[in-house]
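Support reply, case 0932

Customer input (verbatim):
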Amino acid sequence: MNKLELISALKTDAGISKSEAAKVIQIFFDQMADAMAQGERVEIRGLCSFFVKKYRAYTGRNPKTGEKVLIAPKKLPFFKSGKELRERVDAEQ
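Our regenerated output:
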């Protein structure tokens, strides 16, 4: 399912216009992204959680030249499924 399919499903299930559904979805995604950008954890009970992992700087190697390269510290978003989602996906086999 992609964003347009999600908008269409919300439109149908909630009985609202496509533009209203698109606005709701966009607000939802924007709020999640803003929270994660501030380092907060986003948890949707029974479905999943999103969180940010912080990585320290380290020395890596350029695979072509073998030259040592300093890799800057970074933060990356991660997703972890909830127990109910794992069980639901496993039951669908």
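We compared this against your earlier run and they match. Two observations from our side: The longest helix spans residues 18-37. The helical segments are 3-14, 18-37, 83-91. Please reopen the case if you see a mismatch on your end.
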